[in-house]
């Protein structure tokens, strides 16, 4: 049986520091068969549309934020875990590339500001999937920002909408919500689709765009999937406000 850890939306340098450190310690001790990072690993605040003309546009550069992610997540993961690590494309990951195309075309470089190159994934022996990743029979991982995926207001709803679109069960991020949703159809409920949203791992206090009260329907969590041939059993691992969590009876 394979064990796959699924994480999303660290949005470094806006990550929850303790949650990130506890996650890395968990990966090192648990040694899963694979880690899937469903994207938004780096926030890339400066090229965000709401930073235009504001102080945030002149903060950390794209390359500085990428270097921060490498130093504080990717390299520490590689120091304790040499297994497969796959990063998926995401809306935040596309920000540097889109910023140049839309606002600074004279400086556009096709390769330099692609996320997999900014994060030196090849040097770290990590993989990159730009849109979706078929990681098990009948299951795909995708960030959730692709056109045609209908956003829902409740946790798990967007993932099940994506599952119906793809015709496969889906594990995703993007919504910052955490839930598992199932839909069955056919005679004797013979056809089943599952949608999994794995939450986020950022520090909401750092998300200034939420306003002073920081109100949001977000849940800090990550996913743990057990893959036995064609059978996939998903679990949501809730992360507490102090960055701690419990997996299989062990607290991190």
UniProtKB/TrEMBL annotation:
It comes from the Bacteria. InterPro entries: Metallo-depent_PP-like. This is Calcineurin-like phosphoesterase superfamily domain-containing protein. It comes from Streptomyces yunnanensis.
């Amino acid at each position: 049986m394979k064990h796959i850890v699924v994480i999303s939306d660290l949005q470094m340098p806006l990550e929850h520091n303790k949650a990130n450190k506890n996650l890395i310690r968990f990966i090192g001790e648990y040694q899963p068969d694979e880690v899937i990072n469903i994207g938004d690993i780096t926030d890339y605040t400066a090229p965000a549309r709401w930073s235009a003309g504001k102080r945030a546009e002149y903060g950390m550069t794209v390359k500085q934020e990428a270097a921060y992610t490498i130093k504080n997540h990717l390299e520490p993961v590689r120091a304790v875990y040499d297994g497969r690590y796959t990063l998926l494309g995401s809306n935040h990951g596309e920000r540097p590339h889109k910023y140049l195309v839309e606002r600074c075309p004279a400086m556009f470089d096709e390769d330099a500001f692609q996320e997999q190159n900014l994060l030196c994934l090849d040097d770290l022996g990590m993989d990159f999937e730009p849109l979706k990743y078929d990681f098990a029979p009948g299951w795909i991982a995708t960030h959730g920002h692709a056109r045609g995926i209908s956003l829902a207001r409740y946790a798990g709803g967007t993932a099940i909408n994506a599952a119906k679109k793809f015709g496969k069960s889906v594990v995703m991020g993007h919504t910052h919500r955490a839930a598992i949703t199932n839909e069955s159809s056919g005679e004797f409920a013979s056809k089943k689709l599952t949608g999994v949203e794995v939450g986020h791992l950022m520090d909401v206090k750092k998300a200034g765009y939420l306003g002073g009260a920081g109100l949001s329907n977000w849940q800090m969590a990550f996913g743990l999937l057990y893959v036995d041939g064609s059978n996939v059993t998903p679990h949501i691992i809730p992360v507490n406000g102090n960055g701690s969590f419990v997996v299989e009876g062990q607290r991190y």
